[in-house]
Amino acid sequence: MPGHTHTGLTPFLVSPASGHGTPTSSYAGSCSYAGAGDGKAAAEAGDAGAAFVLESKGTWWHAGFHLTTAMVGPTVLTLPYALRGMGWGVGLTALTAVAAVTFYTYYLMSRVLDHCEAAGRRHIRFRELAADVLGSGWVFYLVVTVQTIINAGITIGSILIAGNCLQIMYTSLTPDGPLKLYHFIMIVSVVLALFSQMPSFHSLRYINLGSLLLCFGYTILVSGACIRAGMSSNAPVKDYSLSPSNSGKTFDAFLSISILATVFGNGILPEIQATLAPPAAGKMVKALTMCYAVAFFTFYLSAISGYWAFGNAVQSNALQSLMPDEGPSLAPTWLLGLSVVLVLLQLLAIALVYSQVAYEIMEKRSADAAHGRFSRRNLVPRVALRTGYVAACAFVAAALPFFGDIVGVVGAVGFIPLDFVLPVVMYNVALAPPRRSLVYVAHVVIIVVFTAVGVIGAVASVRKLVLDAGQFKPFSDHVVD
Questions:
Q1: For 402-425, what is each residue's pLDDT tens digit?
Q2: Rg over CA atoms, the chain
Q3: Pick from 98, 41, 74, 472: which is nearest to 274 by CA?
Q4: Which residue has the higher pLDDT, 40 or 390?
Q5: CA distance 47 to 369
């Protein structure tokens, strides 16, 4: 590869700042593959992570399946709770604004990737794209650190909530059964470890198609149940008032914005675009359009129906609002059971998608691209490392069943910089719109506003973490709401 002398020792993360004296300009060539359509160029370069995990064979609709799984998950059931913190007018406006801004910033990132590809530098990793465009070693480490926290956090959260789904089904059938939450987390982790052996991101395309259909299924079921509950004689009194104190209103509003940022967050768009067969130019826009069409239907349906039915009494998950601690369920048992099953299945797909970056990093170091993907040389370390990663995530999920509050903090300090701020900064640097242009001014506004939102949202999330601290018990049998 131009500008890079292959030493035969591929580090876990090649830093642009310390790449054995390699200057930033030549670093771009060392971390991208012009025309790497089937992974051949990556294999020749000795990059097993690119050749095996991020192979570029997909179509735009495959990328759409991946994007939808990464964005449209059970977190849609938290949207009524997000409206609770802002009310009807501000809440729906904020939902629409965040949707528009994230679509735009993802579009900008795709444009930057296309721009680099046209210049002969096809980037397949977020960390390398940011380091190439911004030319700074600390950016490389910032991106890889935040990405790792996000991806591990979502995998841990998915395992935890999937285990909780199994526990809900078990206790409904056997109220006094001996199994605890950690038993169900172990079951989920075994299933996830088996599916994690699928070798590449591209190999998940049909699983992610199924994930897309699952999110339609449980959103329609839960939203229909909320509408039914809101019209029933047992419906709670509809109160849409906000917190009586100004400080409470402020913290609730920014916590709600942090929830919206987490719901629309992605953090792995370059890795998803890497699965496209080159040239990738223009294909990601179609994938984004598919993803946001699904998001528009599911997000607004869930948010409006859940908040309308329960008002400010809505819980952080609309499904829980249908199963109050006191009194009868507000939805048929079969509907609740089917919804839980659909959520459980999609959580497995989400965990698989967000594990791919970790697997790519592992195989970049542990695998040998000169050998076959399924050779003993590569298969043994793949099974060991991926199984170990899932086991570690499962252990954290079992030990910290209050992880949902921690994920709220991660969303504020992770998704906002990666999905709202960095794409705009990279576009301004790479494509250099005129400083006096409306585009440039709008970009500066986005950077300033969402940096402030991220900081205040992080404070609000930490505040909730502190308020809930009394409920935290390691290896508890209950997930803290």
A1: 655 666 676 677 888 899 999 999
A2: 22
A3: 41
A4: 390
A5: 6
